[in-house]
Amino acid sequence: MIKRDHLEIVLALHQSGTLTRAAAALNLSQSALSHSMRRLEQQAGVALWEPDGRRIRLTQAGQYLRNVAERLVPQLADADRTLEGYAAGRRGSLRIGMECHPCYEWLLTLLPAFLEENPEIEVDVVQGHRFSGIEALKTHEIDLLITPDPLVIDGLEFEAVFPYELRLAVSTKLKLPDDHAHQNGYLSAVDFLDLDLLTYPVSRDRLDLFTELLIPAGVEPRSTRPVEATEVMLELVRAGRGVTALPDWMVARLGEEVQSFGIGPGGIHKRLALGFRAGALELPYMRAFLGLATQNGRAAATD
Amino acid sequence: MIKRDHLEIVLALHQSGTLTRAAAALNLSQSALSHSMRRLEQQAGVALWEPDGRRIRLTQAGQYLRNVAERLVPQLADADRTLEGYAAGRRGSLRIGMECHPCYEWLLTLLPAFLEENPEIEVDVVQGHRFSGIEALKTHEIDLLITPDPLVIDGLEFEAVFPYELRLAVSTKLKLPDDHAHQNGYLSAVDFLDLDLLTYPVSRDRLDLFTELLIPAGVEPRSTRPVEATEVMLELVRAGRGVTALPDWMVARLGEEVQSFGIGPGGIHKRLALGFRAGALELPYMRAFLGLATQNGRAAATD
DNA sequence: TTCGTCATGATTAAACGTGATCATTTGGAA
DNA sequence: TTCCAAATGATCACGTTTAATCATGACGAA
User: Fold this and answer.
1) Whether residues B154 and B285 fall in one domain
2) Which of B86, B90, B122, B123 to substitute to test the interface with A, most A CBs within 10 Å?
3) Which of A86, A186, B44, B283 is 20 to 30 A from A289, alpha carbon to alpha carbon?
């Protein structure tokens, strides 16, 4: 069976011309190389080199082996180096899952700095897990969860990044039916009877507007329309085609054409958090991500 | 340092799911795999797998290693098989050199059968060696020499394939200046004083017409013109633009428009031979080539 | 609990590596 | 040319390291 050693020997032999120098290059004795190849020859039943004067010449089989070596040895060497990268925590993969659509916008503002500082980390954003983000974390489908709903769960750790309020974004073009909103600075459930609501296309029990306000009040908006893309949703809101619930920092980005109101008398208050598997924070690049998120988190969001 | 064993273990582990089954697949004990990977882990300083229930899950570094394994292990396995091919003599390379231009035509008639019977042999024809074919054989630049001039040389073996006569090909369109040729069936050196000679572009001491007849007689043809391509030369001869020396079997292919004459009173008699390095005939495919050449040699030539 | 699975330690066998020595070759000096 | 010293690889005998096995213990799942 051809082993890595054999390939390296054949390669060094070809490069240096003599077995003695090849041995020096590999930090081994000439005798060791001779033995090692002899073993392979006996096993394979084919000569790999033959004496040519006081040198050595590769046989056809030896030449073939050299070709294989030139192809594979660098790949093995590269794999060694990569493994070192994993050991040093320089290298790794960071698959990020999200449980709130606007979080994606926030992530995008954070990512450039992270990529810059961690060039060997493969970052991927995994959209739409089959189950919950929690499950995805547990099954190693993702390595990091961005969520507005941190929980205490065995085997997972959550780190709060910053608090925010979920507010209703309403175009100034839109005439609200009565002055309730302006008087109190917030909207009650009944106000939604006259509003067209835009939501992300997920089940209602994952939308805080419903779980916190509308479902308890037993109120159904005048209409609801699912919208996939955040950008499209924002334009629809701007155009006054509907209203939607957004984090306050997201509303702030929309400019003066869009005002916002609290949702319900107390407002809906959340905090953005990062979820990891227990022990994941030992990885340097995980700490780096968390550091970036907490330091620049809110700033990045309102940027 | 990543060794082949490690790659095979990670691969088997991924394919079979448990270490125990992976061990069975590799004909090793579960303990062996555990130890082996543990060594690599300690050396590399990175965990490759971690317990997950009573199973094992690859870490990121382990996944990476699996990727490498899926790429490299099959290549190593293939190299093993190829080496077996060399051992069994099925596989090898046959670089053929030639010392006579028309030999090429003969080789081409022989080659299809050889390729058919030896699918794993890489055949190549090496044209124009820097030195002689003998040198090329000795330096392993070629493995087989086709030559009309077999010699007894230390370290080489020659096997005669078939005898032939070198004759002068002359178009019937061409009026020979006197009737000497027709009276005797051969041409003398002086006859060349009135002939335009076509030759391959090599030095005269490698052209039998010169070494055997013209140089000893001190005769120079009316003109000489070098022609590279055999096909072109044949057409020039057919058109009566000149004459050239060709093996008798080659002339026979030219049809009735071209007649031939012996060269000198005794004629120039050669024998086509194959030259090998000593011991090369131990290789099955070398014997196969020699067998084909001797059995079908002359038949193929006059085909 | 029991079964299935993996990790670990002790032990043994095999593989690997080394230095010394021998046989060849080669290139230059006599 | 002949002869010798240097260079090179093969091989031997020996010691070391690596790799395999078995036995056992720990742990989670059924």
Assistant:
1) yes
2) B86
3) B44
Question: Which bases of chain D come closer than 7 Å to a protein CB?
Answer: 7-13, 19-23, 27-29
Q: Are residues A256 and A276 in the same domain?
A: no
Identify whether residues A79 and A31 lie together within a single domain: yes
Pair A135, A252: CB distance under 8 Å: no
**Tens digits of per-residue pLDDT, B236-285?**
999 999 999 999 999 988 888 899 999 999 999 999 999 998 888 888 99
The answer to whether B72 contacts A68, with C-beta atoms less than 8 Å apart, is: no
- Binding residues for strand C (Cβ < 7 Å): A 3, 5, 27-29, 31-32, 35-36, 39, 51-54; B 18-21, 30-31, 34-35, 38, 49, 51, 54-56
Structural domain count, chain B: 3
Task: Name the nt closest to B30 by C-alpha to C1'.
Answer: C6
Domain that holds residue A276: 92-162+271-302
**pLDDT single digits (tens) A72-127:** 999 999 999 999 999 998 999 899 999 888 888 899 989 999 999 999 999 999 87
Do A292 and A150 lie in one domain? The reply is yes
Residues of A in contact with B57 (CB under 8 A): 140
Which residues in chain B are contacts of A45 at CB distance < 8 A?
A: 84, 87
